[in-house]
Give the backbone structure.
Amino acid sequence: MKRYAFSVILALFLVGCETPDGSQNSLEFHRASKLAEFEGVYKNKGDNGTRYSMNNYYLSENIWGYKSSFLWGTMGPNLPAGIRHEDIEFIEVTSTEKSLTAKAIEHGCFVYEKTYISGRDFDVDNGQLVISQDVNLLSPGGQGGVLVGPNRRKITLGIDTANQGKSRTQFDQVGLVYLFLPAAISETYDNRFERVSDKPLGYKHCENR
């Protein structure tokens, strides 16, 4: 009986639930007019304005993410062997007219780099970079995975009005709690990434890796 009562309370909490970003220092996105405005060096570890570590806390998580498996779920960072998101200190960004290159910096040199093409790997929307927009027709979500139904996840990167790096992760889902109670949730997480240089510093490749 107690378990049933708890389930009902949790379900009522989830119905129509919306989670704000929680950031007290979160500023709006700046509308960049060209890719060159994103160039520079950013701290990889984010600041969400709270003492809690939330979704995509590292900038590298937003860019490269994690490997996943239908059966086993998350299976480590989507990076070469031996490179972990938490070990990356900075992200250096360079640009051309139609592309951005991101480098993962550790101990004064880069351990990984990848170039992304506008229109193929990301879209520009209102001067922001939409790098991921996933729609899943049937998947568990919500607190404890008790909500089953279609969901959408959108990751946006850019710079804020104070010229610092910014990410926004938006997650929306509708479905059934415990397969019988209709519910909808919407979650938004903002993170700020300190921009330590507004120009690339020309990091060289780490020779010992």
Remarks:
- The longest strand covers residues 128-141.
- The chain has one domain: 2-197.
- Residues 1-22, 69-74 have pLDDT under 50 and may be disordered.
